[in-house]
Amino acid sequence: MGLNKADDAAVYQLDEKRAIISTTDFFPPIVDDPYDFGAIAAANAMSDVYAMGGQVLFAINLVAFPDSLSRDILREVLRGGAEKVAEAGGVIAGGHSVNDKEPKYGLAVTGIVDPQQIKKKGGGRPGDVLLLTKPLGVGVLTTALKQGRITAESISDAVESMKRLNKQAAEAALAANASGMTDITGFGLLGHAQEMANQAGVDFHIDANQLPWLPNALACGELGAFPGGMGRNLDFFGPHVTFGPDVAQLVQDMLWTPETSGGLLVAVHADQVDSYRALCETAVVIGHVSEGSGHIFIA
């Protein structure tokens, strides 16, 4: 997997049974607690390895940090990242730092996968069922926190969701022989769904009433706490999405909103849905796949 048909990570085959996965991600703080920020950033960076069906081997720290902040803060960020990588079964193997006015943290991650088990974005087939493994709404919750409209306690469920690895969801996808999957991050649910549908040459049908939302997420959307990425996602992916007349405007806006360290969107054969959910209890059925040409229908 390279740049000719962009997927969640690059994959380089070593031999018949082993391929290396390489990916990276980093961003500024989205929560106040340094440890939580480090853990979230690490989980987010490793998510692309899981979206390809792989396992994490090791990671390299990527750090930007100002001289004006205490090194104790940086230590907590790095501790959060290191413990999350250890939870994934990997190790931190070094890194690089630069002086910057705005703190940033993330990882360059190396993973491994059996070439025969790589899960690509474009594998969905007509008749498949779509499952989502984490609730939505991180984007409006963290934006509302930055704007001072809610307290840190109000987003505790979102923090725990962002810190949760997609490891179990990926292992369930391998066991259920999932057709394709991707992780939900900056393009929001609809942007990433459209990428999957477009690469597979199919249409996705999503039931808005089945979508899971984090506590307080819809309330923050009603306050208008949308990050700037929402408008960019709408402009880019909007022509490929059709909403039914009963889908509220608030829900439409929420579905364009970027997520951070979101769950996996997984396409599985209908007879594998129960086995997938048995291994990944957080998974929710949100729609299905039909013949088509890369369009998303929300009803």
| Overall 3D form | globular
Strand fraction equals 25-35%
Topology as a string of helices (H) and strands (E) = EEHEHEEEHHHEHEHHEHEHEE
CATH class value of the largest domain:
Alpha Beta
List how many beta strands DSSP finds.
12
Strand order of the largest sheet: 7-10-6-11-8-12-9
Structural class: alpha+beta
Mean pLDDT: 97
> How would you characterize the largest beta sheet?
7 strands, mixed
CATH architecture of the largest domain: Alpha-Beta Complex
Helix content: 25-40%
Q: Could you tell me how far the N terminus lies from the C terminus, measured between alpha carbons in angstroms?
A: 33 Å
Number of helices: 10
CATH fold-level name of the largest domain? Phosphoribosyl-aminoimidazole Synthetase, Chain A, domain 2
Radius of gyration, whole Å? 19 Å
How many domain modules? 2
Query: CATH superfamily membership of the largest domain, which one?
Result: PurM-like C-terminal domain
Sequence stretches where pLDDT stays below 50 over 5 or more residues: none
Overview features:
five-stranded mixed beta sheet, alpha+beta, 60s Ribosomal Protein L30, Chain: A, 2 domains, 299 residues, globular, Phosphoribosyl-aminoimidazole Synthetase, Chain A, domain 2, 25% strand
Describe this structure in words.
The model has no long low-confidence stretch (mean pLDDT 97). Helix content is 35%, strand content 25%. The longest helix is centred in the first third of the chain and has 18 residues, at 34-51. It is globular. A seven-stranded mixed sheet has the order 7-10-6-11-8-12-9, sandwiched between helices. A five-stranded mixed sheet has the order 1-2-5-3-4, covered by helices on one side. It folds into two domains: 10-117, PurM-like, N-terminal domain (60s Ribosomal Protein L30, Chain: A), CATH 3.30.1330; 121-298, PurM-like C-terminal domain (Phosphoribosyl-aminoimidazole Synthetase, Chain A, domain 2, Alpha-Beta Complex). The chain has ten helices and twelve strands. The chain has helices at 34-51, 71-87, 138-146, 156-163, 167-175, 188-200, 217-222, 229-237, 249-256, 273-279; strands at residues 10-13, 19-27, 55-65, 91-99, 104-113, 129-132, 180-183, 202-206, 241-243, 264-268, 284-291, 296-298. The chain is of the alpha+beta class and 299 residues long. A hairpin with a 5-residue loop joins strand 1 (10-13) and strand 2 (19-27).
